[in-house]
Amino acid sequence: MNLRGAAANAFFAKPDPGTAGALIYGADAMRVALKRQELIANLTGPAADEEMRLTRLSAAEAKSDPTAVLDGLKAVGFFPGPRVVFVDGATEAQAAPLIAALDGWAPGDAALVVTAGALRKTSKLRKTFEAHPKAAAIGIYDEPMGRDEIDAAIAAEGLVLDTAARRDVEALARLLDPGDFRQTLTKIALYAGGEPVTSEAVAAMAPATVDADIDEIIAAAAEGRADAIGPLMQRLGGQGVGAVQLVIFATRHFQQLHAASVGGGAGSIRPPLYGPRRDAAERQTREWGTRRLEAALAVLMETDLTLRSASRAPQVAVMERALIRLAMMVRGQGG
């Protein structure tokens, strides 16, 4: 079978116990690894490692010992329960023993889970898994997480989100790699301590930087480079970055500057900044001063409320005007 989208996500979340296995392939090794972990955990259940129900092989080991994979599929374990043979990092050059093992699979054998990099449609390994009636081939692509994946990640951490926090979490999912997104959710869960999660909690635990262009546009506002903001907004829009994401990170940045202003300098910022980032924060803190930083935070709060309201104003335009307003403020031309 060749699975995509919702069908692939459903397979990862609740695989058929009688499956022969799956080939998970894609150029992004982190995304492939996360899906592989999810699938194996849901196939084997808990304690698979301790009960020796999971056999790991590299693709090189599988090639050097052509019968090792099939032997692993046929082996009888000491403990009851489903078994998996996992082969990592397969290429077309190492496909032969994997194809032979899948062809030799029978009901009752372990499931075969194989990961690989990007594979062409003509790949023999891919064609074999696609053609097998009890196996699946699933391509993992560099695209934003779907709603089902976001919901599953939220549920896995046991998070209860209010409406604003949910919007912020979805914004982070569009910006972060899946691995970074899940790590951020774990941090939010620890921060919330079992309490309902607010937008403020999401902002507090969000990574300080997600993309160099986001850093650049916030720096442009903080340094008074109003003419740079329009082109940067267009670039970010092309990357799928929205106004809500921008206001989250802009607010965080100006909160850091305010903390530095009232706390005696950039050294008081937590988590600490180093090198050029610290130098830039120190310079921006001096240029703004506490009073104007407080005014900037008020602008961002007003913008945030507008973005989350029922206003029909174009969100990107609202955010762009706010950033330009900040850039004018630091130059003493606005307020």
UniProtKB/TrEMBL annotation:
What's the top EC group for this one?
Answer: transferase
Lineage of the source organism?
Bacteria, Pseudomonadati, Pseudomonadota, Alphaproteobacteria, Rhodobacterales
The entry's protein name is DNA-directed DNA polymerase
What InterPro entries does this protein map onto?
DNA_pol3_clamp-load_cplx_C (IPR008921), DNA_polIII_delta (IPR005790), P-loop_NTPase (IPR027417)
Q: Name one GO biological process term.
A: DNA-templated DNA replication
Question: Which is a Gene Ontology cellular component entry for this protein?
Answer: DNA polymerase III complex
Q: Per its UniProt record, what SUPFAM superfamilies does this chain match?
A: post-AAA+ oligomerization domain-like (SSF48019)
EC numbers listed for it are 2.7.7.7
Source organism superkingdom: Bacteria
In its UniProt entry, the species of origin is given as: Jannaschia seosinensis
In which family does this protein belong, per the annotation? Belongs to the DNA polymerase HolA subunit family.
* GO terms for MF: DNA binding; DNA-directed DNA polymerase activity
Reactions catalysed, semicolon-separated, are:
DNA(n) + a 2'-deoxyribonucleoside 5'-triphosphate = DNA(n+1) + diphosphate
Q: Which UniProt keywords are listed?
A: DNA replication, DNA-directed DNA polymerase, Nucleotidyltransferase, Transferase
